[in-house]
């Protein structure tokens, strides 16, 4: 039986790479995006060109009404949502003293509320064998200046991941997170402003490349597979010994 995946933030970066891999491997995909219609259409086109099935939907996941709508559309088109991958996220980098209420609320709305809304809907609708994978960040361990808002949201998502895993375990639904290294998969939120070099300062080390998407995609694909039924409630750190 073919499965269906809902991927938030699926038009670029890690989300797009995951969407393509899933689609190429025969998983039907709903590509969620916000403000990247052309990029989302490109992901869908690539999947369809490879013989897969996909469609794109624009929505603001920070709005609590978006998650039910996304699930409704996926179910109407494909019958169910078997896999949820939360990739949607933004970064507002600033020292805490300079973070306005509006900046904090924006990051909170997309990174935390967005994931909360889709996880809640998945908890209500997913059937046995369902898979939820949240994309987190190794920035939580680096404690970089300027990342207080971002880290607060990712820490909360990891906490919900662990709790929801215990709540959904009896239903045969797994919940995990993958914490990626800074700059993983050319992630838009981590694009560098210093001549293409991603500069992150653990021991003054410069990370002079963005990690290939495939380094992350394979792990997410495994967690979403039937083979990963005993991996549950875990935060898997996918990075180059950054932390």
Automatic annotation (TrEMBL):
Q: Which domain of life is it from?
A: Bacteria
The alphabetized UniProt keywords are: Oxidoreductase
Q: Which positions, given as ranges, span the membrane?
A: none
GO terms of molecular function: oxidoreductase activity, acting on CH-OH group of donors
The record's section on Pfam families has: adh_short_C2
Which residues are in coiled coils? none
Which Gene3D superfamilies does the UniProt record give? NAD(P)-binding Rossmann-like Domain
Which positions fall inside the Ketoreductase domain?
3-181
Family membership, please give it. Belongs to the short-chain dehydrogenases/reductases (SDR) family.
Query: What PANTHER family does the entry give?
Result: NADPH-DEPENDENT ALDEHYDE REDUCTASE-LIKE PROTEIN, CHLOROPLASTIC-RELATED, RE15974P
Could you identify this protein by its name? 3-ketoacyl-ACP reductase
Q: State the organism's lineage.
A: Bacteria, Pseudomonadati, Pseudomonadota, Alphaproteobacteria, Hyphomicrobiales
């Amino acid at each position: 039986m073919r499965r269906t995946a809902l991927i938030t933030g699926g038009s670029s970066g890690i989300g797009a790479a995951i969407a393509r891999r899933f689609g190429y491997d025969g998983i039907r995909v709903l590509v969620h995006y916000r403000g990247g219609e052309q990029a989302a259409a490109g992901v869908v086109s690539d999947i369809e060109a490879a013989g897969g099935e996909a469609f794109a939907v624009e929505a603001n996941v920070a709005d609590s009404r978006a998650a039910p709508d996304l699930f409704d559309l996926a179910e109407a088109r494909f019958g169910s949502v078997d896999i949820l991958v939360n990739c949607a996220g933004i970064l507002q980098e600033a020292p805490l003293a300079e973070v306005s209420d509006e900046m904090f609320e924006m990051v909170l709305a997309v990174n935390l509320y967005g994931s909360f809304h889709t996880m809640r809907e998945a908890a209500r609708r997913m059937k046995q064998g369902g898979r939820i994978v949240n994309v987190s960040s190794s920035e939580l361990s680096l404690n970089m200046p300027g990342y207080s808002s971002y880290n607060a949201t990712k820490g909360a998502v990891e906490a919900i991941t662990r709790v929801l895993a215990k709540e959904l375990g009896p239903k045969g639904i797994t919940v995990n997170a993958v914490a990626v290294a800074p700059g993983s998969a050319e992630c838009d939120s981590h694009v560098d402003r210093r001549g293409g070099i991603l500069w992150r300062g653990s021991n003054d080390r410069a990370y002079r490349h963005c990690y290939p998407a495939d380094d992350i995609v394979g792990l997410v694909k495994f967690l979403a597979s039937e083979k990963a039924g005993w991996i549950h409630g875990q935060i898997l750190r996918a990075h180059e010994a950054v932390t």
